[in-house]
Amino acid sequence: MKIYNKVIRDNIPEIIMKNGMKYEIRELDDQTFLEGLKEKLNEEIDEFKAEEDVEELADLLEVVFAIARLKGVSKDQLEEIQKKKEVTNGGFHKNLFLVKTYE
Length: 103
What we know:
With about 100 residues, the chain is mainly alpha-helical. It contains four helices and no strands. The chain has a domain at about 30-90.
């Protein structure tokens, strides 16, 4: 028996069964699920930092989109917010690093 105590993707129970295993899950309310997603976000960030695998970036996006959904924002709306911020603040295309500012 392995204990996970973490949020999972929707198809994970079927995948577990296909592997001949049993599982115990419960459905969470939105607020509890949001808290679990925040933990999952950190997990995915740590995995990307360790492996630098683009697959982990896709996992990060999936978690971000789920958090946005729970906050009442669609994927399209989130992408629109991102585009507006890129227009006003710029993107991360120039590889800039701020050392300090002066008065």
